[in-house]
Structure formats: C-alpha cells, structure tokens
Amino acid sequence: MMKASILQTPLAMVLAGVWAAALAFGHNRGDVGFLDRLEATLTDLRIQIRGVKKPPDLVTIIAIDDRVAREQGSYPLPRATLTKIVEEIARYKPKVLALDLLLVDAGATDTDAALAQALGKTNTVIAAAALFSESKQTVATKEAGPLADLPVASGFLLPLKVFADQATVGVVNLNTDSSGVPRSMPMLMRSADRVMVSMPLRVASAASRDDTQIGEYNFSLAGSHVPTDIGHLLPMSFYGPHGTIRTISASEVLAGKLSPADIQDRVVAIGVTVTGGGDFFSTPFDPVMPGVEVVSTAITHLLARDTLLRNTSIRLFDAGFAIVLAILCIALLAWRRNAVGLITIVAVVTMWAVINTVAYGHGIWMSAALPLAAAVPPAMAFGALQIWSSRRSVQHFAARSDLLRQFQAPGLREWLIKNPDYLLQPVHQHAAVVFIDLSHFTRLSETLGADVVRDLLKSFHALIDQVTLAHGGVVTSFMGDGAMILFGLPVVADDDAARAARCCIDLTTRTGTWIAGLPPEIASQIGFKIGAHFGDIVASRLGGASYQHITATGDTVNVASRLMEVAAGHGAEVAVSDDLLRRAGDNCPMLTIGTLSGPTEVQIRGRNGAVSAWLWCDGSAARTVSTSA
C-alpha cells in the first residue's frame, strides 16, 4: 500500500502529460470534436470581451439587398441590371472589383457579352466555389512541401468562360465550426488537376499589384509576410456585427447616387444580402451575416495586415503549455491536498485565461480549449482518487450531482431517465412557443454591480421557472434576461396552446408585480415583453458527445421571438399569434381577462410574410411595459 501511494503522484503526472499530448495531436488534426466546439465558444467569448473593432476603411460592399430586389421586381437580378451596376462602379475607378457571385449559368448571349465587357473595364475578381464529396475539407496527403496540407476538393464550380476571360477567378469557400461560424478561410485549394487561389488573396494581390509568393506556412504580399495556419488557412476575427464594413445598397448605384469617395481607389465587393438569397453565417456579434461581408472581412485582413496570428509555432506553444499545465495541476493537488491546492490551480488558470484573452485582443490566437481540456479531466480524476475513501467527500460529490441535475427541466429530466434515447433523432411536431424578455436590462446592467445583476436575474429566472412549471411547460433555455418556454415537450397535448396562453397571463401578472417590487431606481428603467406562437417545430438534441441540450427550431420559434418586438412596439404586454389564440379555444382566458385587440397583420423582422397577431394587456396600471424593442 505504501509503495502504491508513493507511485500514485508520479504515475498520475505521466498519464496527465500523455493525455495532454494526445489531445494536442488530435486537436491540431481537427479530430477532437468537443475541443473544436469548446474552442469556438471560448473564441466567441474573447471576441465579445474585445468588443467591436473599427475596421480599416479599405473595402466597400455593394449589397444586392431586399430593397433592390423589390425595386427590380425579381431576384436574382437580370444580367442587364448587374451590368449596369458593374458599369456604374467602374466609372469611379475602384482599385479592384470583387464579384462575390457565381456566374455559372448562361443567360442570353447579348446580355452575357455586355456583362463580360463591363467586367473587363476594371480590375475584376469573380467567384468560384470548391466542391467536396465529404463535409470535411482538409484531406491528408502523402506529399511534402507548401501544398501538402491544402484542402482537397473533388472539383471546382467555375464561372462561364465568357466572364472568366475578362477577370481573375478566386475561390470563396469558408471553414466554419460546428455552430456555423466562419473561423478561417483557405487561401489555396487543390483538386486532382489544379490549385486555386481564394478570392481575398486574389483581390489583395491585385490591389497590391504584386504576385503572391507561397511559403510553407505563410505567403508574401507586397514585401510583407502573412502568416497562415496549417493548410494555408487565414484565421478570421470579425470586426463587428453586420454592416460594420461600409455597405451601400445596389439600389443607390442604379439610382446614380454613388459618391466617388465610396468607390475610387478602394476595393469594392458586390454580393447578395437579400433575404433568402446567398449564403449567411452566424458570428459572435450577429446571428446572420451575409457571405459577402465575411469575404470582405478576409480581404480587409489581408490589405491591412491585421490577420490573427495562429500558425505552427502558436500550436506548438499551445501543446507545450497544455502538457505543462496538466502536470502542474497534478503536482499542486498532490502538494496541497486541500483548498490551498485548488485555489492555487484556479489562480494559475485564471492568470493564463487573462493572458490568453489579452493576447487575442492583440492578434495572437492561442488555444483556450486545449489547456482546459488537457488539465481539467486529469486534475478531476486525480482529485477524485484522493478523496474517494472519504465519506464526507462522497457526500460532497453526491450533492454536486444533485446540483447539476437542476440544469434540466424536471419533466424532461424524468422523461430522459425513462427514455435515454429521447430525441436522438429530430422530431417534427406541433408546439406552443413562448418568449419573455426584459426590456432595457442590458443598458441598466451597465450601471449596476455584477452582484446586483446576478441577483436580479436569479430572482427573475426563478419566477419564470415557477410559472412555467405551474402550467406544465418546459423552459428550454434562459437567454440572459429572458427565456424560451415550450408547451409540447416531452409529449404533445391537446391543451398546449391553452396552457401557453394561461402561462402568458400569469407571467404578465407575476413579472409586473416583481418589477413593481424592485427599488424605484431599477423598476422605473425596465419593462418586459412576451411573444407566443403555435405551429410546427423541430424538437431535437443539439450539441455533441460531451454536452447536449434539448431545444426547438423552426419558423414557429422565430415568429414567437419576433412577436416580442411587436408587443413592445404597440405598447402591449403580450403579442400572440392568431394561430395560438384559435388553437387555445373559446375558453381561452385572454378572451375574458384584460384587454385583447386584433387581429392585426404585422410584419416580422427577417421574414417575408405578414403574421396575424393579437395584442393583450391585463389592464393594471401597475404594469410596466417597454415602448421599444
């Protein structure tokens, strides 16, 4: 026993080092899914901490948006209209024109010829796309040299020859993480018979009037070395939300309202932002960003030389630090088998987190997930082994287990215990969706201490949880100062809509009372809004092997969320869809309690069709309702 105890710590340190090294190897190959997801989350957090960054004013986006589509009466725009846009831009002599449109379909011969002629009037780069037979782009090769780790495509979707003859062609593919956020852009791609250059690199090369020289993990442009990640990936860090980069509607171009300062000697990118058209991506700042703005971000990175530094040297540092941190945590736990050891570990990790965040803000992208994943599991395993024989420690872990169970709604928790395979496959069904959100709370929280904000949210979330449970609903997520509630999980019931309506009434009453009971300086600055809709949803588990949560997606969810804005905009407490009210039946309490007005046809932001909605207030003067979204 004594010998085993002596060997326990060195063996644990060796195993921790091996674990960290294995994780680092897999992470660099992109084979550890949970690490990629964790890294994505922590990267978003670092970007939010860094905040919005004013982009270098080098690129102008000409947006083919809803406005121009409405004015032209159709989308896609006719080739003749696109020709007018290109010709008008060319008049002001842009440095480079980047056309983020796939011109792969032939039109009328005369209109295609006219567009080709217009493209030839200026320094133009047009889009191509790489095609992949598998979802994973990077394919290992046995070759050596700077092209060995390039993403290997099965082929390329190239523009028509009539257009390619008048312009340079660049690939617009992006690398996204599991949540759909673009994290990098391949500067080079290859197929069996060719190597293609990305559109941003083509544009930057044309703007710099310099041929790009490719190295193993970098390339030189206009005398400067630009570092890249493995596979010549350009790491991306967004400057801010949609519209941060200068954007002008194509409608302004067609109307002849361009300013020379918007175009002359600048890179101009033409792309699609029209609703339902083109590619859209989520970012840490925005749930929806057009692909042309993502490409323009990469172009700006290259022109301004403000790319994130994430290369083999950084990855080697990440691996080394992960190994050292894992071993250090074991050593600290063995040295101080009490709270002192844990506090020291927390201090070390906190210091590293601060350094990591500051480095990211200065353009150095060190991994945040790898050291955590390398150190935390071995430390937890070693700590559990040390306290395994202690009854008090066993009770401690049991209490923590009970605490973790609170992070799932009771109804779903019990259902999952009985049915472990529940929602492994997505289920299409009817459900009622309710959103509630505090108004102006974010602005207020800037003036309150962190402890006050936490206490307010804690009490508000508890209120929502109590009301939801009372009406048989499920809180699927608390989103800051709001929540999403479902009626229809884990099983569909005939009265889901009716219970959702009663829940809205109860939430209104309870929330109004809660706000009225807050200190006057807080209560006077916040309000609330509720939106509810009934319809088809897709219930599923989202997440990966290490963590999953149950949620609903679909148009019904989006409409319910946007109805909160409708309620706030009309001075009501609740906005419910006509679908939910009809489904709730003639005995719906909204028909007899409070004031119900409607139906009103309302436009939902981000949605083409109108929605028939009803506005409800409980009529109490004590209620506080936001007058703006």
Description:
The chain is an alpha+beta fold and 629 residues long. The protein is built from 21 helices and 25 strands. Strands 18, 19, 20, 21, 22, 23, 24 and 25 form an 8-stranded mixed beta sheet that branches. Strands 1, 2, 3, 4, 5, 14 and 15 form a 7-stranded mixed beta sheet that branches. A 3-stranded antiparallel beta sheet has the order 6-7-13, with no helix packed on it. Helix 1 (2-29) packs antiparallel against helix 11 and helix 4 runs parallel beside helix 5. The protein is globular and about 70 Å long. The N and C termini lie far apart (67 Å).
Please supply descriptive tags for the structure shown above.
globular, eight-stranded mixed sheet, 629 residues, alpha+beta, 21% strand
Major sheet attributes? 8 strands, mixed
What ranges have pLDDT less than 50 throughout 5 or more consecutive residues? 138-142, 396-401, 621-629
**Percent helix among the residues?**
40-55%
- The number of distinct β-strands equals 25
The gyration radius over C-alpha positions equals 28 Å
Give the CA-CA distance, first to last residue: 67 Å
Total helical elements: 21
Mean pLDDT: 84
Strand content: 15-25%
Structural class: alpha+beta
How is this structure best summarized?
With 629 residues, the protein is of the alpha+beta class. 44% of the residues lie in helices and 21% in strands. It has 21 helices and 25 strands.
Topology:
Elements: H1 2-29, H2 33-50, E1 59-64, H3 66-72, H4 79-91, E2 96-99, H5 109-119, E3 124-131, E4 155-157, H6 161-164, E5 168-171, E6 175-176, E7 182-186, E8 188-190, E9 195-197, H7 199-208, E10 213-214, E11 218-221, E12 224-227, E13 233-235, E14 247-249, H8 250-254, H9 260-263, E15 267-272, E16 280-281, E17 289-290, H10 291-304, H11 312-335, H12 339-361, H13 369-387, H14 391-405, H15 410-418, E18 427-439, H16 441-445, H17 450-470, E19 474-479, E20 482-487, H18 496-516, H19 520-523, E21 527-543, E22 548-553, H20 555-569, E23 574-577, H21 578-584, E24 595-603, E25 610-617
Helix pairs in contact: 1-11, 1-13, 2-12, 4-5, 7-10, 11-12, 11-13, 17-18, 18-21
